[in-house]
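Our consortium's second objective concerns turning raw sequence data into structural hypotheses that experimental partners can test. To show how far this objective has progressed, the report includes one record in full. It was chosen at random from the queue rather than selected for favorable results. The single chain below, 155 residues long, was entered without modification.
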Amino acid sequence: MLWTRLSSFAVLTGEEWMVRRNAVSWVGIRLIFTMAVFLLASLNVWAQTTGTILGEISDQSGAVIPSATVQAINTDTGFTVTVKPSSEGSYLIPLLPLGHYSISAEASGFKTFTRPGVLVPVGQNIRVDVKLEVGKVDQTINVASSAVNIETTTA
């Protein structure tokens, strides 16, 4: 009795198979469509709450400085992003939350550049080009010798 029930359940005629296959296909299509709608809606919401800061870093003669470091600090929240420019000297800080930012750039041998009050609005690309001025070259002195230990408690 049990075997006949299982075998009748497992064996489908051609027509029954097509009905079930079409039902499964329809469910899959609806699921994919629903996921696509939610994905597009979430991308649209994300795009409406961020902006981008971009620019080029060069010295006063126009030569690019790819070794610099650029930092964007949201003065409202303290959110900080640090990036390095490309070999062409351009930098890009995407997906920044809306707000007021202070942009700073520094490189060895140059004065630090700071531009406060940069407003990042919805979906905008804000260009902040940086011209670094030659400044004091930082010097580091490394001492590579060991000190002589003198025992003073038992002498």
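The partners drew two points from this record. The chain has two domains: 2-46, 51-132. Residues 2-46 form one domain. Both points have been shared with the crystallography group to help prioritize constructs.
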